[in-house]
Automatic annotation (TrEMBL):
Designated name of the protein: Uncharacterized protein
UniProt-listed Pfam families: DNA_gyraseA_C (PF03989)
Any GO CC annotation of this UniProt entry: DNA topoisomerase type II (double strand cut, ATP-hydrolyzing) complex
Record region (Disordered): 68-98
Species annotation: Bradymonas sediminis
GO molecular function, one term: ATP binding
UniProt xrefs under SUPFAM superfamilies: GyrA/ParC C-terminal domain-like (SSF101904)
Coiled coil: none
GO process annotations (BP): DNA topological change
InterPro entries, per database record: GyrA/parC_rep, Gyrase/topoIV_suA_C, Type_II_DNA_Topoisomerases
Length: 411
């Protein structure tokens, strides 16, 4: 006897219609009063099937979350056996503050409990009017910090004066502490003591004289002796480096003079060269070419100093990510085309690259202000030619904009 096909579930059909509305219409049209006017037939069916419009929306949200979790599980390949043995032990760093910056120019210290590990992306709260969170940085608990702006200036700050944000209230704005010009924003923060140990007192504690190296999106790099920078607290700001018109700094790094530099481009190339290939210049200099870019659409998306680096984490705008052993990037000469970083899919670009360790965390930021903090081992360890695994499910035209390395925040 042939079985009769089952009739479609009316509730599932309603959920499918609600999800389609959510994808195509603005959120305010889904408010109950608006929906009853704009979509009366759907509203009546949803209210009857789910005992209310809000219950129908909640059921659609649960269905969407379940679908996303299923797609994520299928997309991600099993981790390598050696990575499954990584021991995660949250240390005191897990409770030390993080430095955050937002699209609206806010810069503040943040309790790491505000950005915990999560099974799905979240939208972190930010101060009123600050815009979406764009980056997080961990540098411990120094007595003072030096912040660099997108216009090549730097400011010394006592850590106690850095604005604080507890998720609900902010005690001050960064503009109340240092004198930024209109539209000028903080883009980097480093420990102030790295500038102190340039020579003489304490030099042996930090491994010898340090240099400051910055790299821009346009692939310019410049090194300066930190003795040229002032260690004192300075609210007015001083010039650290010059920038070509339209160029912006991607990374400002302070470290030992005997070092190497790693840069990665949006078109999927990376270069690793001796830091000595960038000679020290005065502050009033633009610098030299760090690597050869692949046309006007290419740009540097990440850079860091190479001493003691173990792995590199990479993510593309479409959310494909992986980790690569740093040893795979052999040293080359500065200003070359570099080595393959990963295999890019058509239309995709590298969004961000950071140095990391297997027992740390990685934070993925998107253009919609969402953050997904995951163990670093969520990014599979692969070779340079691999394209990576899907690390985050994106919504609509959303893209990944940044990847950050953070201390281990939990087991």
């Amino acid at each position: 006897m042939t079985e009769k096909p089952q009739a479609p579930n009316p509730a599932n059909a309603i959920i499918a219609e609600l999800l389609e509305l959510a994808r195509t219409e603005s959120a305010d049209k889904l408010f109950e009063l608006n929906a009853a006017t704009l979509y009366p037939e759907l509203y009546d069916r949803a209210a009857a099937s789910f005992d209310g419009w809000d219950a129908a929306l909640a059921s659609a949200l649960v269905a969407l979350a379940t679908q996303s979790a299923t797609r994520s599980t299928r997309a991600r390949k099993p981790r390598q056996a050696d990575e499954e043995q990584v021991v995660r032990r949250p240390g005191p760093q897990a409770e030390q503050p993080l430095f955050a910056r937002t699209s609206g120019g806010a810069f503040y210290a943040l309790d790491p409990a505000e950005v915990p590990l999560s099974d799905a992306p979240v939208v972190p709260a930010t101060p009123q009017g600050a815009g979406r969170m764009e980056a997080l940085k961990y540098i411990g608990e120094p007595d003072g910090v030096v912040v660099f702006s997108d216009r090549g200036r730097y400011f010394g700050m006592d850590t106690r004066m850095v604005p604080q944000w507890d998720g609900e209230m902010q005690n001050r704005r960064v503009q109340d502490v240092v004198h930024l010009d209109d539209g000028e924003q903080i883009i980097e923060v480093v420990e102030r003591d790295l500038l102190r140990y340039s020579s003489g007192y304490g030099a042996s504690q930090k491994g010898g004289p340090n240099r400051m190296i910055h790299v821009t999106r346009g692939a310019k790099a410049k090194a300066s002796e930190v003795s040229e920078l002032t260690y004192t607290l300075d609210r007015e700001g001083r010039d650290a480096f010059l920038l070509n018109d339209g160029d912006v700094p991607v990374a400002v790094m302070v470290g030992e003079a005997e070092n190497s530099v790693f840069c990665a481009s949006a078109m999927g190339k990376a270069i690793h060269f001796d830091a000595a290939d960038i000679r020290s210049m005065g502050l009033a200099a633009v610098g030299v070419n760090a690597m050869k870019l692949d046309g006007d659409a290419d740009a540097i998306v990440g850079a860091f100093l190479g001493n003691k680096i173990e792995q590199v984490a990479i993510i593309t705008e479409q959310g494909l990510g992986k980790r690569v052993d740093f040893a795979e990037f052999r040293p080359q000469s500065r200003a070359g085309a570099g080595l393959q970083l990963l295999k890019l899919q058509s239309g995709d670009r590298v969004a961000s690259v950071v140095a990391c360790k297997a027992d740390e965390d990685l934070g993925i930021f998107t253009s919609r202000g969402r953050l997904h903090r995951v163990p670093a081992t969520a990014f599979a360890r692969m070779g340079r030619p691999a394209k990576g695994d899907q690390q985050i499910d994106l919504i609509g035209d959303e893209v990944v904009v940044r990847l950050v390395a953070l201390p281990c925040g939990g087991v």
